[in-house]
Write a sequence for this structure.
């Protein structure tokens, strides 16, 4: 992902992206190539995801971040999101596009990052967190 895009997203979440990215590069946890693309080793990414998953292995709605499509779909279809959720990513192929009502996100009061692809939202956007940037 482009470093400028990542910086914009992180700054929008109230984080100090330039300082944080510099520290991560110094510690060799992320890389920035000559095309300004930010990279991270897959094992490091997976370790971070596992740390989040272990905090609530059976109740994904209690995690701060949701990215695994089965967990995300379960939380959205059952409308069981909680204020613990700060980030949610769901990328579906266009052939299996899903539609969710915005009320599904009502309890996710701390949601700051929402990445959706192949997903349609229907309803009033007042139900989405005011912390989204």
């Amino acid at each position: 992902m482009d470093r400028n895009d990542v910086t914009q997203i992180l700054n929008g979440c109230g984080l100090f992206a330039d300082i944080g990215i510099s520290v991560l590069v110094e510690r060799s946890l992320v890389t920035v190539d000559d095309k300004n693309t930010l990279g991270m080793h897959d094992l490091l990414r997976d370790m971070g995801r596992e740390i989040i998953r272990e905090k609530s292995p059976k109740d994904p709605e209690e995690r701060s971040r949701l990215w695994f499509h089965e967990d995300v779909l379960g939380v959205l279809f059952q409308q069981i999101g909680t204020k613990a959720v700060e980030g949610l990513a769901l990328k579906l192929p266009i052939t299996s596009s899903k539609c969710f009502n915005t009320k599904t996100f009502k309890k996710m009061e701390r949601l700051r990052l929402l990445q959706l692809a192949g997903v349609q939202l229907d309803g009033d956007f007042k139900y989405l967190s005011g912390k989204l940037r």
About this structure: The beta strands are 31-32, 38-39, 65-66, 87-91, 98-101, 113-117, 119-122. The chain has two domains: 1-40, 45-133.
